[in-house]
Amino acid sequence: MKTIYFSIAAFLIFSFAETFAQVFPDSYSLNQQNKKMSKVSSPQSISSNGINDIITCGDTIWVGTNNGVSLSTDNGNTWTSFTKEFNNLSVSAIGYYKGVFWAALANSFIIDGREDFKGDGLTFTSDLGKSWTYIPQPKDSTVDTLVVYGIDTLYTYPHPTDEEDVVWDIAFTPHAIWIAAWGAGLRRSFDMGKTWQRVVLPPDYLDSINPYDTLDFCLSPYISPRCKTGNSNHQLCSIAVVNDSTLYVGTINGIDKTTNAESLYPSWVKFNHQNQWNSFPGDWVMQLAYDRLNNTIWAACWQGPDETEKYGVSFSTDGGASWHATLLGQKVYNFAFKNSEVIAPSDNGAFGTEDNGLTWILPGTIQDEHSKLNLSTDAFYSAGFSNNYTWLGSGEGLARLQNNGSGMWQGTWKVYFVSQPLSSNTDTYAYPNPFNPRTDILKIKYSTNGSEQVTIRILNFSMQIVKTIIENANRGNPTHVIDSPSGTIDYWDGTDQAGNMVPNGVYFYRVDVGLQKPAYGKILVVY
Prior knowledge:
Shape: elongated
Strand order of the largest sheet: 1-5-4-3-2
Radius of gyration: 24 Å
Strand content: 35-45%
Helix content: under 10%
Structural class: mainly beta
């Protein structure tokens, strides 16, 4: 990403889809204002190594990435990627309901010397990507806005721009599409995104609202001339739908629940770190997911401004009447449900539990059975499960576990990477470059022209050997091969032969493949 990678640059939020009965038209027409998107098929490639979200439905897998979306209809054996016609934008949220796939798009911009984010609209397809309908980012007029809620008329701070207004989650009730937007708050549409309604949530100082209350507050996350205080509870992160009328919303002030979601004025009750006996670890609820097999709502909680808050997970089995904390100290991004098991991708691995959070298990080394390549990262941002396959998404690539039934992480792994093709059999390059060893693993790509003995060394500016990465190692056909015919990769973690991190500077690498002429490349190490 630079394509943007939300999890590293700021606050990555991923949506996990629950499927409910949803009535959609069978086909859609594209008018002249709609953007048209095309598809590119590949037997191996996903569109990006940065996997933001995963949705599984039978043998169909949708993957939202830093560069469009990818689709497989055969459990990941072949892929169709949608990239160029997404304008190479990052996908911040995806949803799939009753045969219709939705994606929210996002981009980055620089303001006052810092990187920030903006929404770039939504798009949906009902025919597996053969045609798409584009919907502009929902915006308000620039003038002051009033919204009616029951017996009250409330001032709402208008959000007329797409800057700082990324759509982080998408959800569905029988007749409405719901989006969680960072700046624009909670919105719903009853006409497939043609028009959007602002949905009133409690302010920070109230734990519930209903349309018969006498209310006087601003529906706004920001301070403005009309709004003397901003409300954290109006900054949205996540949504989970339980049934046709029950919906949970995650904000940076906790969780709001309604049991009359499609009514004109939904009532809400709020749960957070301050008003619960068994309190949330933190009020910043980055992700919500509903486990319908066990009737449990799960929340990925991040540390908020209260000094007693921390990272962790909360779950409720009684509709929010009581909450339980687990996985304390872990920064969790998402959830997936594998029968009675729960998977929680985090900065420190993909945690799995078979006993409702009492104990958690990590998968250990994730190595492709065919190529023997490892998915060399501890940070995972998305997960899914279907047809006895477990899927994990990271910033380094996608992994699929074909379960063998002997344990939650037991089975055969397949790892999916994408990289720039080599221009010739003697070509080589390294990425990411510049390279920060604190956050990345350097990949060195080269060609073997078949099965060969390979040696790779890191050299300093004086061409002295800093580290020998591999020496006379078997590579190619299929070891460490990531694309046809013989594109091969190996890794450098930024350390020298003694295991110390190398200093900033320019380094070189030398690749010796069999009796071929050595290939060289340059690396810039920057912390």
